[in-house]
Amino acid sequence: MTTTALPDSRTLPGAPADQHRWSARLWGILAVLSLVLFLDGLDVSMVGVALPSIGSALSLSTSSLQWIVSGYVLGYGGLLLLGGRTADLLGRRRVFLIALAVFAVASLLGGMVDSGPLLIATRFIKGVSAAFTAPTGLSIITTTFAEGKARNKALSIYTVFGASGYSSGLIFGGLMTGIGWRWTFLMPVPVAIIALVAGLSLIPRDRAASEGGHDILGALTSTAAMLLLVYDLVSAPNRGWTAPVTLALFGVVVLLLAAFVLVERRVRHPLIRLGILRKGTLVRANLAIVALFGSYTAFQFIVTLYLQSVLGWKPITMALALLPTGLLVALSAPFAGTMIDRFGTARFIVGGMIAMTVGYLLFLRVDTHPVYVLAILPTALLLGVGFALGFPSINVQATAGVENDEQGLAAGLVQTAGQVGAALVLAITTAIISSDDARSAVRSPAAVLADYRPGLIFVTAVALGGLVITLAPLLVRRAARQDALD
């Protein structure tokens, strides 16, 4: 893939920038891409805050509310692999800007509908658009900035914006829901339009890959497998995990994945070069983001219901209570790249998972009359630390050592892992905490909290599992060095 050069000959995608001082246009490109990733994260968590209000306005049950989150995850997780590879093959600028325009239109429609199914449909469309903007934006970053200090700095800023979107969505969600739940859908529209106009001006034109064909069969089997897998995961709590339909769909997913592997082994220009999965750093990054995203998405779902439904807090009160999470993530942005250069990604990922795990553990102490400073604030602070340490480090590790023509693929893989992880953990958590909605309406806050507590324990176990997986290689290397010294 090649790109046109700027008049001042500064480097852009296709010729990674490694200069110590970036041009204004390079900063502008990074700002546009970061803003769009911020919107992706913002949209998920901001709408999550509005779920109780949406449920009341549209008469939706807890399981139906899950689909407002899961509809987005279905489109996002189901098409991320295709989105990342499409950017490599058809041109990153074109794919990014078209997907961003679709995101803006779907956001506008979501704020206008009066039907639960239609609202879920707009969420699915937004997820599909994010499946193209997220890996494409990341691949533009990694092909614009040379691997090493320049790329680490750019990725740290970029991914911290994404993490800030997830955490800041709680704040904006509280503010917008206080005005009306529809504003949680309408607010991203003007921001997306501004990013689109700026992207048209700043992101240089590029060309589609000149070599290789399009692996149509691979694209069809992988996309069908991911869509069906995410759909089965998010709908299984309603049908039952051992229901014949659930098991049959899982069987179809296995067959589709087997067919996909067979196709990729035989075609000349595969959609996914299977050899990339032998990179240990990439695999560990994918496992880490499953635990990070999965636990956080499910925790946010529970804490939103807990603070508003059990404690009776207003959305803005909840938003302010969780503000420290967003502040910590945002304030870490200027330092993340330098710290990753100094200490490496592995230690930061482990540190992030430790912070997340301890944060969830502390939240298990909550009751129906919590003291904010003792029961909620410590978790908010630790989750902010966990995201600030883990999120940028995972993305740096996932794309390190990957050739430019596979950066979209690597980005799509790690983001697919995060979304599939979010779908899986949220689906299981919802199944754990769901109870009869009519009966729950007349139950005491203590009884409802008792329903939520097993879900919180499961979320904590997911984070702990991620910690064990990411810590194990460090312990093995330390043991190997000790043996060498002995």
TrEMBL record:
Transmembrane segments: 26-52, 64-83, 95-112, 124-145, 157-179, 185-204, 216-234, 240-263, 283-307, 313-336, 348-366, 372-396, 408-435, 455-476
Keywords for the protein's UniProt record, in alphabetical order: Cell membrane, Membrane, Transmembrane, Transmembrane helix, Transport
Residue stretches making up the Major facilitator superfamily (MFS) profile domain: 29-480
Keyword Transmembrane attributed: yes
Entry annotated with the keyword Metal-binding: no
Subcellular location: Cell membrane
Main location: membrane
Membrane topology recorded in Swiss-Prot or TrEMBL: Multi-pass membrane protein
Protein name: MFS transporter
